[in-house]
Amino acid sequence: MELQVQAIKDRLREETEAIPKTKKLIDASLRQQKKLQNMSLHVPYQMPDKMAISNLETSRCLFPEFSGQVSGSFEALKLDEEPAALPKEKKGRGAPPMWYVTGSELDSLSSYMRGRLTLEK
């Protein structure tokens, strides 16, 4: 009988020690949820499939605090093998920058121009 009482007391002590940890986790998840909801408000309606390299480099310049985190997080994934040879770059112009068209801008176009626009353009 005493063993059962002692086991219950131990379990109760473990649960009371876990309460502050769970409160911290709940607070962190609520902060993350608010941050993600704020980010979702600023995402364009339709995202293009392709992303130009220049846009990627621009985002690294705009957010230097994240560029270090990204490069550091992939260091653990590097293999000891030598990387494969990169294909030769084509001479000429690079990809043009991708611009977004808002819904109001699209609505203001004539029907002829709306028909000419595609997701790739």
From TrEMBL:
GO BP: cell division; chromosome segregation; mitotic cell cycle; regulation of microtubule polymerization or depolymerization
A UniProt-annotated Pfam family: SKA1
Cellular-component GO terms for this entry: mitotic spindle; outer kinetochore; spindle microtubule
Top-level taxon in the UniProt lineage: Eukaryota
GO molecular function term, any single one: microtubule binding
Transmembrane segments: none
Name of the protein described by the UniProt record: Uncharacterized protein
